[in-house]
Amino acid sequence: MRELGGWTGLDVLDVGCGTGFHLPLFAAEAASVIGVEPHPDLVAIAARRVRRTPRVAVLQGTAQSLPLPDASVDVVHARWAYFFGPGCEPGLAELDRVVRPGGRAFVIDNDPLTPSTFSTWFRRGYPEVDGAEVRRFWADRGWQRHPVAMAWTFDSRADLEAVVRIELPTDVAAEVLDSHDGLTVDYAVSLWTRTF
To answer: Which H, E and C letters describe 24-72, residue by residue?
Structure first.
């Protein structure tokens, strides 16, 4: 994201900020940071995380109805908030509303087409997701794809198993955990960007 434009001195929105993990990172350089999260428990955790961090606010809201004024942010970060393209149109319309002209949005999502351990697992767990259709969805709306190779690295097998069980259907999670050794999972993602 830094290589594609960064956020120094800009107003940043983190859509689906969860527990607020990324908010302090953005706040170190941004003019202001707003985290928006639909789940009240996660909003509370995120607010506690940044309670002593200046220029950061956490609001309850959804991608489809962002609690922000028109043309109020320069940079949007959305990590796993707009799943799989089709169906995300209302949330993307909100980005059109809240991002200032010249601003940029970054959407990070699973990449089931690029070979990786997790993409293989993902295709097994979600065969209905057509990776080619997802890529067409974003490209047809003017978004550019930047492939990112990353990895999960866990401190314990219990942590790896807990995350896999969250990410995949129960039967698929059990199958992949039975066949996977180690504490690292290579993972292909798509970073989608658009300038407004």
So the answer is: HHHHCCCCEEEEEECCHHHHHHHHHHCCCCCCEEEEECECCECCCCCCC
Q: What is the CATH number of domain 1-110?
A: 3.40.50.150
- The model carries a pTM of 0.91
pLDDT in tens, 90-106: 999 999 999 999 999 99
Q: Kindly tell me if the per-residue pLDDT of 84 is higher than 80.
A: no
| Cβ contact 188:147 at 8 Å | yes
The domain ranges of the chain are 1-110
State both tokens at 59. 């609001």
C-alpha to C-alpha distance for 184 and 180, rounded to whole angstroms: 9
Q: Output the six-digit token pair for 1.
A: 């994201």
86: pLDDT confidence band, cut at 50, 70 and 90? confident
Tokens encoding 13: 């929105």
The CA angle 57-67-23, to the nearest 5 degrees, is 30
